[in-house]
TrEMBL record:
Protein name per the record: Zinc-type alcohol dehydrogenase-like protein
Taxon lineage: Eukaryota, Fungi, Dikarya, Ascomycota, Pezizomycotina
Keywords carried by this UniProt record: Oxidoreductase
Alphabetized Gene3D superfamilies for the sequence: Medium-chain alcohol dehydrogenases, catalytic domain, NAD(P)-binding Rossmann-like Domain
Family: Belongs to the zinc-containing alcohol dehydrogenase family.
Matching InterPro entries: GroES-like_sf, NAD(P)-bd_dom_sf, Trans-enoyl_RdTase-like
Amino acid sequence: MKYIRQQQALRNGLFDIKHSNLLSEATRISGFPDMTSAKTQNALFVTELGKPVTAGTREIPTPGEDEVLIKVTATQLLPHDTYGRDKGLLFADHLPYVLGSNIAGTVQSSNHAYGLGTHIYGPGNPLSPVPNYSGLQEYALLTLSNSAPVPEGISDDGAATLPINAVTTFAALFHPNHLALPPPWSPEAASFDYSKETLVVIGAGSNCGRLALQFAKSVGIETVVGIASLSNARELEELGASHVIDRYLSQVELVRQVRGILGAGGVLKVLDCVSWTHELAVALVPEDEKSLVATLHRATAVADILEREGKTKAVVEFVMGAVNNWGKEDSAAFWEVVGEGCG
Ligand SMILES: NC(=O)c1ccc[n+]([C@@H]2O[C@H](COP(=O)([O-])OP(=O)(O)OC[C@H]3O[C@@H](n4cnc5c(N)ncnc54)[C@H](OP(=O)(O)O)[C@@H]3O)[C@@H](O)[C@H]2O)c1
């Protein structure tokens, strides 16, 4: 089963996320003059927090080693772009800044393996002090090791919906710093029985949650409990959830139902895609066994919660997905997995 389907399937929900919504959010860059020989380019800047972006110009960045210059064809604004524009998340100290860290475009530089004009996609880098790796401008940089050709049958718009959420969610499940499942290309994967693993996804209905369900299903994890709106239950089950629990239940009831499925001591891997505090994840895991919790929002004050709840064997780690924590070979294997999933 391909866990990420191509565009035709997007509309019936088999792709990772709410595509119509996301594709409408993917900002197409068009109508600008061809500036390949120019030194400056048009860009949209956050100049003041909480205010609309403004048009301006900036230098076209020069690619360094392991970098590719692309002419941007599509970029997608993600929740962190909103938090950045409104509150300064990630780049408050670097204004004026350019939004858009899911990027697709055509290759303009030639010192690497991609041919000129190849359509590639990848995550930008909103942590960079200069916005060279941002999409709301005509030209941007991607890194060679953290980008890939746009898969056949997928448009640049479609590809631009994937990078940050895919990199982050995949790392949450498979990186040794997080839930530490063997990555599907690793030697351990061949003999690892994924079907015996269980996973709880808090916010399974989010874009990241949907990707997590698909990645989990693709390796054969059979018991995946999603906490989400029940209105999406059928779709989430198709994507990989074995059970969907109503996210609007009280925390006590959520814990009771999840434990009813996995057993009181059985909640050992939790991915929390949506919470800003992590009481629910901590309440789910057992006291007397090591458990792993990966969070997509920084886990503030989590040590206090763990101490207070007596869950000192739980390891709660924030996943920073904007940067790729895999080595070059693993990174290439990751992009292959994502590309195959789009087929
Ligand atoms: N750390 C990183 O590097 C990184 C990377 C990517 C994303 N993120 C963050 O992860 C979060 C999710 O991103 P996304 O793009 O996947 O967001 P999204 O799709 O916009 O998530 C919104 C959905 O999450 C679900 N949700 C919201 N609150 C919930 C709750 N309390 N319990 C259960 N489900 C809830 C709702 O789905 P239903 O009601 O339909 O179930 C809602 O429609 C964002 O805040 C984003 O900034 C972080």
